[in-house]
UniProtKB/TrEMBL annotation:
This is Transmembrane protein. Residues 180-428 form the Wntless-like transmembrane domain. One of its GO terms (cellular component) is membrane. Pfam families: WLS-like_TM. It comes from Anaeramoeba flamelloides. The lineage of its organism: Eukaryota, Metamonada, Anaeramoebidae, Anaeramoeba. Signal peptide: none annotated. The chain crosses the membrane at residues 18-38, 183-201, 221-239, 245-267, 288-306, 330-354, 374-393, 405-426. It is found in: Membrane. One of its GO terms (molecular function) is toxic substance binding. It comes from the Eukaryota. Residues 541-552 have a biased composition (Polar residues). The keyword Membrane applies. It is a multi-pass membrane protein.
Length: 552
């Protein structure tokens, strides 16, 4: 079948079926939200509170965290002061942080720690009257190489210690229950995408990829990227001593998001351009270049952050990375440009689809519902933009999620909608294709067996086995077609019986009519004979009379 799909499966759906599809979609999204809401919290938080003497000019505190495992994934330590004054504060204070680690059992009395890093930063502290001040990170370990950590924090007050009466330390690390929750659902999403890809490959096996429509090609790309985004090797980070899996996870997510944005823009514009106009650089380059710039700047910022995190556990991107805000602003403007472009393109396509004649310039098939297709595509596009891309591009930096709700919504909505896209834009004769898959498989097997039977290199015993396989293949084909033939024969017999009844009734009518005609003919003949007999009698009487008169 070397032809482009003339019609999509969605074009054959009635209004009731479309309503059922959207009800299923909304139900799955709501179910995902409920699962995320009742899921475990991602971060486990421990708090420590220490008093501060007003006469101190230097404050030092050592805090030890023990018995961490790979399941905890990361460690974040933050500190904040409490203002003792009746007025607000904004002061700049230097902070020194030293981080140590070891793999000694927590029951071992040895206190040997290996120094990991030592850094000094200045932080601006803002405080409301009689309230806690802004927090700042004093240690951030993006992956856990050691079981035990000791964080030494030194604060230089410079004769400003009288301003504060307490210091608070917050320790954050990933909840083990959240790790199990994420692994289970990631693999559920991975297996779901693999199953859908297998079904779609089986359905479209007889069609060359070059003959796919532009929508089907992009859906194929998105399914592959969705599989990578769900990250089948996610659990490897539990045994990895580096950031490789984390960086790979971010790279797959970014690639999927950029491809999704390109998919929306290219497919929305494709309704207004012919196939020849779409197969040009002029069509693709203006739509791809802004997205490539967005992805390039995101990767630059991300790898810059990763590098700084490894070298400095006290790094804070908004304060310490030069050019961070300007690059973030540039990416924001690029994304706003994209939103404006796709909004204008959607309006133009809407006008083109819903104009009076209901046809488009590149419409080559008859009876194809572009209105239904466009509305379905636009609705799913809007859901993905709201739940996925806006959240990603608003928080594209390394960000610690606070609940399982954010995780489940970002992954489930993407998976569900891309799967709906995949099935909706299948060829319209999908049911017939499903029916013929088994038939094609049996025919291929039988052809292979027959070719082996005529192969001179095959031994006599193997040929005997081949003969039996041929018989089995024929029996299999007969069994496959038995139900169809039986139903066809029953229909033929019913039709023949009805025809026979009609013929019998017609023949009886004809026989009765022939009997009547025979009777009528016989009666006519009798009348004719009677008339002739009577006529003969009269003539004979006349002759007798004449002969009698002559004799007289």
């Amino acid at each position: 079948m070397n032809q482009e799909f003339p019609q999509y499966l969605i074009d054959t759906w009635k209004k009731k079926k479309l309503i059922v599809v959207f009800i299923i979609l909304i139900s799955v999204v709501v179910l995902s939200a409920i699962i995320g809401a009742i899921g475990p919290e991602e971060l486990y938080n421990r708090k420590l509170d220490f008093g501060i003497s007003p006469t101190k000019t230097r404050y030092s505190q050592n805090v030890t965290i023990k018995s961490l495992t790979k399941n905890h994934q990361l460690l974040v330590v933050q500190s904040k002061f409490r203002n003792r004054q009746e007025y607000g504060l904004m002061v700049e204070l230097p902070f020194e942080t030293r981080v140590f680690g070891n793999n000694i059992s927590p029951y071992n009395r040895s206190s040997k720690f290996e120094e990991i890093v030592s850094t000094v930063h200045k932080r601006v502290v803002k405080c409301e009257p009689k309230k806690t001040c802004t927090s700042h990170t004093i240690a951030y370990m993006p992956y856990l190489k050691y079981r035990n950590y000791r964080v030494e924090s030194i604060h230089e007050f410079n004769e400003l210690g009288y301003l504060f009466d307490h210091i608070y330390f917050d320790f954050y690390y990933v909840n083990k229950a959240m790790v199990s929750f994420e692994i289970v659902f990631r693999y559920i999403f991975v297996m779901t995408v693999l199953a859908v890809m297998f079904i779609l490959v089986r359905v479209t096996r007889g069609i060359a990829f070059k003959n796919y429509t532009i929508t089907q090609k992009w859906i194929t790309y998105l399914l592959v990227l969705l599989l990578l985004k769900n990250n089948p090797i996610f659990s490897a980070q539990l045994i990895d001593h580096s950031l490789f899996v984390r960086v790979l996870d971010f790279f797959f997510t970014a690639a999927f998001r950029i491809a999704l944005l390109a998919f929306f823009l290219i497919i929305t514009d494709s309704y207004r351009y012919s196939k020849e106009e779409r197969n040009t650089r002029r069509y693709y380059l203006p739509r791809i270049i802004p997205l490539l710039l967005i992805s390039l700047f995101i990767l630059i910022i991300y790898f810059n952050l990763i590098t700084n995190e490894l070298n400095d556990p006290q790094i804070e991107e908004e304060r310490d990375i030069a050019g961070f805000r300007s690059m973030h602003t540039f990416i924001f403007y690029l994304f706003i440009t994209y939103i404006c472009w796709i909004f204008i393109s959607t309006i133009q396509t809407f006008v083109a689809v819903f104009k009076k004649n209901g046809q488009l310039n590149n419409l080559t098939e008859e009876n194809v519902s572009y209105k239904k297709r466009f509305l379905f595509f636009f609705t799913l596009e809007l859901i993905l933009l709201i739940f996925g891309n806006i959240e990603f591009f608003g928080n594209f930096l390394p960000k610690v999620r606070t609940s399982s709700y954010e995780f489940i919504m970002m992954f489930s909505v993407d998976t569900i909608i891309i799967i709906f896209y995949g099935f909706s834009f299948l060829p319209s004769d999908t049911e017939n294709i499903f029916r013929n898959i088994k038939k094609r498989k049996n025919q291929t097997k039988k052809d292979q067996i027959i070719s082996d039977a005529y192969n001179p290199d095959v031994s006599q015993n193997e040929k005997l086995n081949i003969d039996s396989d041929i018989d089995e293949g024929i029996d299999t084909d007969l069994n496959d077609h038995h139900n169809i033939l039986e139903s066809d024969l029953e229909e033929d017999l019913n039709e023949k019986s009805e025809l026979q009844k009609n013929n019998d009734s017609d023949s009886s009518i004809i026989n009765s009519q022939s009997d009547l005609s025979d009777k009528k003919n016989n009666s006519d003949k009798k009348q004719i004979i009677t008339y002739q007999d009577s006529h003969l009698d009269d003539s004979q009487n006349e002759n007798l009379i004449n002969s009698g008169s002559e004799n007289n």
